[in-house]
Amino acid sequence: MSDAALIRVEHVSRYYGALCALRDVSFEVRRGEVLGFLGPNGAGKSTTMQIISGNLAPTRGRVWINGIDILDEPKRAKTHIGFLPEQPPLYRELTVDEYLRYCARLHRIPRARENSALDIARQRCGLTGVGSRLIGNLSKGYRQRVGIAQAIVHMPAVVILDEPTAGLDPIQIHEMRALIRELAAEHSVILSTHILPEVQAICDQVQIIHRGELVLKDSIEGLTRRMQGASLRVGLRYPPALSALEAIAGVHGVEVLEDGAFRLYCTGPEMADTVVRHAAEQGWGLYELSPERLSLEQIFMELTRSEPVAA
């Protein structure tokens, strides 16, 4: 399997007048990878997805889809993209087969290959038994499957999924995650989601965008290392000002907890010794020191809680 980058984004920025919605964003997604794309509302996630899918031009920067510059050859590049928006573009009055055939013709699949393309999409998405049923009569989980089937019926190199498990029950979510992992075997997949455990369950890479900038870009393995031992819970009888804790070398964030306790976000393996030394020297009355394992939610909140900078 080739490990070529099927999605390549280089120094992309997008301005709406004086407002910068996206600032100098760069990343790659290779064949066989699932990228989890996270960010709070208004962070620039949707703008990035629109630029990658060719629905919005960047103010600066370039995007390549399967080696094709989407600005220079938009029609050709878009033939390599499959897209499932948060609200799947389904026609509820059509049967599954009628709708997928319609999508196949929109993608200009030759008539001689139509039936084969539909068979593959139905099989991969678990729709082999529902081809003759009206889409409007299907469950939410099956409608999501039909949405993914329309995104892959033309066998694109890149598949972009926006909130694919929204509104599904736990069994449907499990099935949808398994389907996304299967898709990654032959495609590059970008998964935009607000469900943080979903990223850990199915993604190879994770990116967090905040105020138009990528504030985290890491592999799931790197993220796991970041989550382990990345903070200390510290209890102090005579707590100092926050600035004194923030001034400790290796501390890059402080969260106030209850009863004189703090959470220190740290870098470096010897931070516990450093905190003990400072507490003893300053007479802070250290009574608790506990290494913590951060959750992805805590990392997300830490990276996205800063206030906007005034223009």
Main attributes of the structure:
alpha/beta; four-stranded antiparallel sheet; single chain; 2 domains; six-stranded mixed sheet; 11 helices; Alpha-Beta Plaits; Rossmann fold; disordered C terminus; 29% strand; elongated; 311 residues
Write up what this structure looks like.
The chain is α/β, with parallel strands linked by helices and 311 residues long. The protein folds into two domains: 5-225, P-loop containing nucleotide triphosphate hydrolases (Rossmann fold, 3-Layer(aba) Sandwich); 229-292, Alpha-Beta Plaits. It is built from eleven helices and 14 strands. A six-stranded mixed β-sheet has the order 6-7-8-3-9-10. Helix 6 links the parallel strand 7 (158-162) and strand 8. The longest helix is centred in the middle third of the chain and has 14 residues, at 111-124.
Topology:
Blueprint: E1 5-16, E2 19-30, E3 34-38, H1 45-52, E4 60-65, E5 68-69, H2 74-78, E6 81-84, H3 96-106, H4 111-124, H5 140-152, E7 158-162, H6 170-183, E8 188-192, H7 196-202, E9 205-210, E10 213-219, H8 220-227, E11 231-236, H9 242-246, E12 251-256, E13 261-266, H10 271-282, E14 286-292, H11 296-304
Parallel strand pairs: 3-8, 3-9, 6-7, 7-8
Antiparallel strand pairs: 1-2, 1-4, 4-5, 9-10, 11-13, 11-14, 12-13
Helix pairs in contact: 3-4
Outline of this structure?
With 311 residues, the chain is of the alpha/beta class.
